[in-house]
Amino acid sequence: MSSLLRPVDQKGLLMCFVLAVLLGFGIQMVYPFPLPLVAIFGLNVSTYLVMMIDKIQAVQSGRRLSERSLFLMTVLGGSVGMVTAMYTLRHKSRKTAFQLIVWVIVLLQLSMLYYLYSSLSPL
Question: The whole model's pTM is what?
Fold first, then answer.
């Protein structure tokens, strides 16, 4: 049975989550923020860093992460980091289809947050 992701993509996703956990623990030691907030912050920073590494690999013609794994990082909570990396690093900025899918993911996440917030808050 073959995996859905290549070994390089599995390593990239693992690196993203290890960075997120390390950042989360580091932040939690200094500032006692709520754990979900720290986790989201860690995921976004690590997604940005993974995009930076992928950009360096693209310039040096090295092993690259697949778009599938970058989308997975976005879906799992790294939307802000992905969008920030796309525009500050100018990585994947020429690929209209990639940008469209990322923005669709962001809009779906925002609509889910709106739905959850509106169903929890009393009117």
Answer: 0.82
